[in-house]
């Protein structure tokens, strides 16, 4: 049986790596939304405040959706990771109990 402490730590590291990649993807997506908005704003005269306001509102909506999606993914992946860590912990505790039972029954 592999060392459960190593598996536990690997699971944590894998989740950290996943969250880092998720954050990077989120940052890129937000930067793209911002760049698109800036490009659209360049095409609208500065004195057309109503049109510019609509574009900014659209940007805000897209950024809010992206943030909502990020939070959802973080919550879901966190729950899955916690479950996996709990399973490893339970297995580790069961192995300790078995070892103690073996010692006591000798």
Describe this structure in words.
The chain is mainly α. It is 90% helix and 0% strand. The chain has two helices and no strands. α1 packs antiparallel against α2 (49-104).
User: How far from one another are the termini?
Assistant: 23 Å
Query: How is the quaternary structure best described?
Result: single chain
The backbone outline, from C-alpha atoms, is rod-shaped
**Topology order in helix (H) and strand (E) letters:** HH
Number of helical segments with 4 or more residues: 2
Task: Report the strand count.
Answer: 0
Average pLDDT taken over every residue: 95
Describe how the helices and strands are arranged.
Blueprint: H1 4-42, H2 49-104
Quick structural gist:
The protein has 106 residues and is mainly alpha-helical.
Keywords:
2 helices; 106 residues; mainly alpha; 0% strand; rod-shaped
């Amino acid at each position: 049986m592999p060392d459960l402490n190593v598996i536990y730590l690997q699971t944590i590291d894998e989740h950290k790596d996943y969250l880092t990649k998720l954050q990077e993807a989120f940052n890129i997506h937000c930067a793209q939304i911002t760049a698109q908005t800036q490009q659209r704003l360049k095409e609208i005269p500065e004195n057309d405040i109503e049109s510019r306001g609509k574009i900014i509102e659209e940007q805000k909506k897209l950024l809010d959706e992206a943030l909502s999606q990020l939070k959802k993914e973080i919550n879901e992946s966190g729950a899955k990771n916690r479950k996996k860590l709990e399973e490893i912990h339970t297995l580790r505790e069961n192995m300790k109990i078995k070892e103690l039972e073996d010692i006591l029954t000798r």
